[in-house]
Amino acid sequence: MSGSQENVNQYLTFKLGKESFAIEILKVREVLDFSEPTKVPRSPEFLEGVINLRGSVVPVVDMRVILGMPKNEISIDSCIIIIEISLFDETILVGALADSVQEVVEILDTTIDPPPKIGTKLRTEFLKGIGKVNSGFVMILNMDRVLSIEELDMVERLSMEASAPVDPNMMHGEQEQPSATAP
Questions:
Q1: CATH at 47
Q2: Between vectors from CA 12 to CA 148 and to CA 16, what angle results, nearest 5°?
């Protein structure tokens, strides 16, 4: 056998507005039709809320807000891409709200250019590169870097709070009474 072995990876492509993005298929757990997430009080703008995924609480982030784009109305094509994100030595699941999912494509490593230094409205630290697909380009996201460690920590903490068992004494508007202390 002669010649060099070219590395081909598969990516799930999706749209945010007119822009095409891609995520390594190995990071994608599944794609869900959009269902309204449960809002989490005091959450940042990029956090849409949480969903129940077979008994697990999964935070859903708005990819448009994270990438500095204006929010969009939910449409029939809107979906939630369940992604595995590596944080230190653990893997967490995050739902990524996208305008639509396109297809799974194969991209040769040799056809991926580094992120541009200028001319993009996106912060480029979370771009792996720009891939050539058919006659166009797709921005390949590094999902482990899309959310900062502080944002991931906040998302994980808020989703854990949302999944905490509800204190039955706090239901139906009952307030926890302060313990009486003698003056």
A1: 2.40.50.180
A2: 65
pTM: 0.80
Count of domains in the chain? 1
Can you give the residue range of the structural domain that contains 96? 8-163
Q: What is the pLDDT of residues 13-44, one digit of tens each?
A: 999 999 999 999 999 999 999 999 999 888 88
Q: Is residue 128 part of a domain?
A: yes
CA 6 – CA 139 distance, rounded (Å): 20
Both tokens of 92, joined, read 């967490």
Provide the token pair at 79: 């979906």
Better-predicted residue by pLDDT, 121 or 79: 79
SS3 116: coil
* Tokens standing for residue 68: 């500095």
